[in-house]
Amino acid sequence: MKTDFNSDGVVVPAPAATQPLTGLAPGGTATVVSVEDGGPVGRRLLELGLLPGTIVRALRHAPLGDPGVYELRGYRLCLRRSETDRVVVTPGRAGEPPDA
Q1: Neighbouring-strand partners of residue 78
Q2: pLDDT in tens, 86-98
Q3: What's the pTM?
Q4: For the CA atoms of 62, 64, 67, 68, what is the dihedral angle to 10 degrees?
Q5: Greatest pairwise CA separation for the chain in angstroms
Q6: Are 30 and 48 in contact (CB under 8 A)?
Q7: In terms of CATH architecture, what is 17-91?
Q8: Which three-class secondary structure state does DSSP give residue 40?
Q9: Which pLDDT score, from 0 to 100, does residue 50 have?
Q10: What is the mean pLDDT of residues 15-40?
Q11: Dihedral pair phi/psi, residue 20, rounded to 5°
C-alpha cells in the first residue's frame, strides 16, 4: 500500500486510484467520487443518483462499447460513453478492496 508521510511523522494512506466510470468492466463495482461537469449533463447525472459515495455496478456494454448499463440505488441506468466519461469512480466499494 502506498503511503504519504506528513511532517509530523504520521503515516497517511495514499488516496485510492480513480478512473472514469467508462473504464469499469462488466461485473465490476465502483464507488462514485465526483461528477466532473457543472453543466446540464452533470446536473442530470447527479439527479439520476450518481452522487459521491454511491455504489455502481457495471452490468454490460453494447458490442461496440457504447452505451453501457449500470446498476445503482436499486435501478438500472443506460448511459453513453460521453456521459460516463464525466463520472469519476474508485474501483470497489467504499472501505473494501477493488474487484479482481
Answers
A1: 69
A2: 999 998 876 555 4
A3: 0.74
A4: 50
A5: 52
A6: no
A7: Roll (2.30)
A8: helix
A9: 92
A10: 87
A11: -70, 155
